[in-house]
């Protein structure tokens, strides 16, 4: 009977406990494609292993249904999934008996998924031995059904891979698949396996590269999201005057997207440390604001690093702008055109009695002595002073 007359390429007989392995085998045979060079060499179809039948309802013992008998008759090959469990299955025995009842013993193949190395035949259903005996009677010589074992390790250039826990197991199974397919297609195993090893190596390389890239992506994501510490120091960029109050409790704000982190720098010698800042913000532009008494506000953008220094300028007007009114309390009048000297700088009160003077930053003091020819109740002015400060004369 020609192969093309069969509805199914093969019928997989198995015990329900072995469904996982049987299903893997079906998927392998259904998807297998013969290498192009071998197709041309042996004049075979690219997809020689056409539809494989596997009855997923095969979970109960008993006689074969008429439907299953029809499927067996219309299958070119019978593949028996062998294990200690299927060896005890009456259902598997019935399928083997029915398939071989008309002398198709040479179309039976064994796929061994589990066995005792010292007694491999313990995984064979008794019907298999009966088939071999009938086959030998037909041909007048001893006949053995082709069996492949997924636990068998090959001896070739890829032998070292068998020692790898996962890849080794996959490689053994792939080798068993190729042994089975070579028997089913009547091709030389070594030739078929050499092509499959190339395919397998490509898959391993692709899988390995994929795993490496995946782990690299995970590691990078983890690294990017690891919190970092950002340290900030302030540097007084203007002339430093030790007579003036030092920097104290500067408030630093760093804005990351829609989030703002705030910390305080207690003195010019100390620093602010921002913790739990996402690593992803490093080397990106952020907005920074600094506010501190007696200093000009700082509002700037910069590229974030783990440590950076911000220049801050003292506000020269706080201790430099001197502004007060001279007032004679005896006559209750402002004092005009009075000569006044403060910190070596001279001026004259205007027609409203206002004294207005600016002292450069390097000469500024928290308080100043007022020198004038007019007698004063108090000749000292404390900074900063507002525009409504009055200095009394008499």
Task: Supply the key terms.
single chain, 394 residues, alpha/beta, Rossmann fold, Immunoglobulin-like, 3 domains, five-stranded parallel β-sheet, 8 helices, 29% strand
Structural features, described:
This protein folds into three domains: 3-149, Rossmann fold, CATH 3.40.50; 227-314, Immunoglobulin-like (Sandwich), CATH 2.60.40.4130; 317-393, Immunoglobulin-like, CATH 2.60.40.10. Strands 2-1-3-4-5 form a five-stranded parallel sheet, with helices on both faces. The longest helix has 37 residues, at 189-225. The model has no long low-confidence stretch (mean pLDDT 90). By secondary structure, it is α/β, with parallel strands linked by helices. The protein has helices at residues 19-31, 36-42, 66-73, 90-99, 126-139, 165-185, 189-225, 316-320; strands spanning 8-13, 52-54, 75-82, 108-112, 146-149, 227-236, 250-256, 259-265, 271-278, 285-291, 298-303, 307-312, 321-328, 333-334, 339-342, 345-348, 354-358, 367-372, 380-382, 390-393. Helix 4 packs parallel to helix 5 (126-139) and helix 6 runs antiparallel to helix 7 (189-225).
Brief description of this entry?
The protein has 394 residues and is an alpha/beta fold. 29% of the residues lie in helices and 29% in strands. It folds into 3 domains: 3-149, 3-Layer(aba) Sandwich (Rossmann fold), CATH 3.40.50; 227-314, Sandwich (Immunoglobulin-like), CATH 2.60.40; 317-393, Immunoglobulins (Immunoglobulin-like, Sandwich), CATH 2.60.40.10.
């Amino acid at each position: 009977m020609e192969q093309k007359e069969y509805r199914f390429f093969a019928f997989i007989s198995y015990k329900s406990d072995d469904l996982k392995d049987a299903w893997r085998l079906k998927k392998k045979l259904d998807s297998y494609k013969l290498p192009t060079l071998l197709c041309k060499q042996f004049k075979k179809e690219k997809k020689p292993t056409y539809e494989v039948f596997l009855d997923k309802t095969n979970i109960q013992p008993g006689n074969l249904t008429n439907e299953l008998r029809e499927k067996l008759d219309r299958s070119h090959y019978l593949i028996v999934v062998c294990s200690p469990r299927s060896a005890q299955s009456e259902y598997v025995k019935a399928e083997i008996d029915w398939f071989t009842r008309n002398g198709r013993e040479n179309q039976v193949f064994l796929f061994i998924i589990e066995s005792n190395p010292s007694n491999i035949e313990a995984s064979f259903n008794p019907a298999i031995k009966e088939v071999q005996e009938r086959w030998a009677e037909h041909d007048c010589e001893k006949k053995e059904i082709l069996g492949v074992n997924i636990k068998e390790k090959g001896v070739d250039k890829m032998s070292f891979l068998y020692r790898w826990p996962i890849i080794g197991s996959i490689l053994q199974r792939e080798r068993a698949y190729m042994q089975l397919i070579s028997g089913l297609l009547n091709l030389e195993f070594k030739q078929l396996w050499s092509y499959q090893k190339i395919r397998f190596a490509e898959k391993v390389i692709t899988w390995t590269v994929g795993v490496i890239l995946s782990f690299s992506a995970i590691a990078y994501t983890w690294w990017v999201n690891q919190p970092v510490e950002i340290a900030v120091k302030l540097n007084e960029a203007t002339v430093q005057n030790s007579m003036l109050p030092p920097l104290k409790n500067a408030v630093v704000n760093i804005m990351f997207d829609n989030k703002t982190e705030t910390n305080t720098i207690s003195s010019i010698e100390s620093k602010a440390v921002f913790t739990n800042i996402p690593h992803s913000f490093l080397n990106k532009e952020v907005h920074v604001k600094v506010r501190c008494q007696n200093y000009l506000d700082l509002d700037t953008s910069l590229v974030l690093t783990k440590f950076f220094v911000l220049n801050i300028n003292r506000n020269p007007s706080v201790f430099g702008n001197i502004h007060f009114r001279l007032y004679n309390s005896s006559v209750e009048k402002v004092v005009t055109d009075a000569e006044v000297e403060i910190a070596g700088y001279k001026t004259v009160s205007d027609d409203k009695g206002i004294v207005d003077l600016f002292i450069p930053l390097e000469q500024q003091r928290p308080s100043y002595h007022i020198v004038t020819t007019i007698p004063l109740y108090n000749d000292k002015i404390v900074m900063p002073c507002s525009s409504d400060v009055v200095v009394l004369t008499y």
